[in-house]
Amino acid sequence: MERRGERMFSVFFQENFQESESDDDFIPEEVSEDEDHVISDEESTEEETDSEITPLIVQPGTFIARDGTKWTSSKPVKARRRASVNIVEKQPGLTMKAREISRPADAFNCFIDDEMVKIICHETNRYALHKGEQGTWIDVTPIEIRAFFRLLLLAGCYHGRKEPVLDMWSEENHCFQRPIFTATMSRDRFKKIVRFIRFNDFRT
User: Fold this and answer.
1) Which portions of the sequence form the region Disordered (predicted)?
2) Which residues of 110-127 are buried (b: 16+ CB within 10 A; e: fewer)?
């Protein structure tokens, strides 16, 4: 009985083994178009990755942003017509008025002339009256405004040494006291001009 069972198992094993080894009975699996497309995409992705790894050759004066934008420090090659407002018709250098400068005050007048000083006085007085200083406010004059500007410049020089501006009028602290400040105007007057000075119409 055991021998019969062994023969049957042997015959069954040989038949199945021969069928699996046979090339004639083998049927290849069909590859769908979708799978073929996926494979081609994977190959293209690998190619793109390889191309991204390749270092970029950047010319001098050229910069590549993170998003791939290319920037250059050179001027555009395309010629453009210059706007008339950007055309300088006057000769460069010192003007006739600047050649006549002999004092620091003359240089200051090149930036803030008499007409500008008049505007500053007018707008400062109007703003002080608008703020309710009718009873205590004394109109500033061009001479006083120019003196005020000079004190500001001088205070800036002294303040560079860490000296408090308002202490330059002090009669108690002689370390910071500057007689020129007291001789020019009082500390209260200086503080009021600082509070109300205007360079344009405050209503606009």
Assistant:
1) 14-52
2) eeeeeeebeebbebbbbb
**Letter for the amino acid at 170?**
S
Contact indicator for 181, 107 with CB cutoff of 8 Å: no
Tell me what percent of the chain is helix, strand and coil, each rounded to the nearest 5: 55, 5, 45
Q: Which residue in this structure is represented by tokens 């590549």?
A: 64
Per-residue pLDDT of 143-189, as tens digits, reads 999 999 999 888 888 776 677 888 888 877 777 778 888 899 999 99
Residue 127's alpha-carbon distances to 146, 163, 191, 203, in angstroms, are 19, 30, 15, 9
Structure tokens at 84: 């008339």
Asked if 123 and 199 count as a contact pair (C-beta separation under 8 A), the reply is yes
Q: For residues 10 and 2, what is the distance between their CA atoms, to the nearest angstrom?
A: 12
